[in-house]
Write a structure and sequence with these properties.
Length: 113
């Protein structure tokens, strides 16, 4: 009798678990869709560090335009050029202002004759 009650209790728990309200997983933020970007203009005197990754944080407004927050530290020539370039980015307007980040790294390759 005790085994039967235990089996019925376990069966009841399993059935309750199957009919429970499913947990809600958070919906990921919509991906930004870029529709335009200007050319990156880097002055010849800009010293790009080989293999360095330059990161620029920015926000895409509800008008689809990118804006870069004022940096906390002084920026070099490369960082200033990247900040100017990012402000040329245009996106499909998101429903709310959306933070974004871009990583940039210069690569050098030899031309094969």
């Amino acid at each position: 009798m005790v085994e039967r009650i235990g089996t019925v209790a376990i069966l009841g728990l399993l059935l309750a678990a199957c009919s429970a309200t499913p947990s809600r997983t958070p919906v990921p933020d919509a991906e930004l869709q870029m529709i335009a970007a200007g050319e990156l203009e880097l002055a010849r005197e800009c010293a790009v560090q080989p293999g360095a990754i330059y990161r620029t944080h920015y926000t895409v407004g509800t008008d689809g335009q990118a804006s870069v927050a004022a940096p906390l530290q002084p920026q070099g020539c490369v960082e200033q050029s990247l900040s100017r370039w990012v402000t040329t980015f245009r996106y499909v307007p998101p429903a709310a202002a959306t933070p974004a980040v871009i990583d940039w790294m210069a690569t050098v390759a030899r031309r094969i004759p």
